[in-house]
UniProtKB/TrEMBL annotation:
PROSITE patterns named in the record: DHFR_2 (PS51330)
Gene3D superfamilies: Dihydrofolate Reductase, subunit A
Molecular function GO labels: dihydrofolate reductase activity; kinase activity; NADP+ binding
Species whose genome carries this gene: Flavobacterium glycines
Protein name (Swiss-Prot/TrEMBL): Dihydrofolate reductase
């Protein structure tokens, strides 16, 4: 199963200048609990935004750079090769960034989305989730508090099965 996981604002903003524009500790905890022990697929810029590789995950980096090296990571030049690098019987996660999300939406079976209830200026955006293609199966609203400046909702979508005409 291929799962996209992201946090996006109401205007679908993901970040600016290769950085998140909010800090939601509970979203980080959710990301860690869902992705630990799995393969994570990302673009080169997303990988380079981390201070070091995320522990207990197999990193698959998609890049057009021919000589790109990242110690301990799998480097590929296409979405298809990234997906082929993942075990077939395990969940793998697409973790961004914006360009990778747009390229992989058709490959995904599930979306784990944190909706940040605010609009932000950004240069990377999550693709629109079309209700014809996706079904919301879980929604868990969280109110802002001393550690979270914004209200947010954890949402889970599954791809609708197309019925033959």
């Amino acid at each position: 199963m291929i799962t996209m996981i992201a946090a996006a604002a109401e205007n679908r903003a993901l970040g600016k200048d290769n950085q998140l524009v909010w800090h939601l500790p509970n979203d980080f905890k959710r990301f860690k609990s869902l992705t630990t022990g799995h393969h994570i697929i990302m673009g080169r810029k997303t990988f380079e935004s981390f201070p070091k590789p995320l522990p207990n995950r197999t990193h698959i980096i998609i890049t057009r750079q021919k000589d790109y090296k990242a110690e301990g990571c799998i480097v590929v030049d296409s979405i298809e090769k990234a997906i082929e690098s993942c075990p077939k019987n395990e969940e793998a996660f697409i973790i961004g960034g914006g360009e990778i999300y747009n390229l992989t939406l058709s490959f995904a079976d599930k979306i784990e989305l944190t909706v940040v209830h605010h609009n932000f200026e950004a240069d990377a955006f999550f693709p629109e989730i079309k209700t014809d293609d996706w079904e919301l199966i879980n929604s868990d609203f969280q109110s802002k508090d001393e550690k979270h400046l914004y209200d947010y909702t954890f949402e889970t979508y599954i791809k609708k099965q197309k019925t033959p005409q």
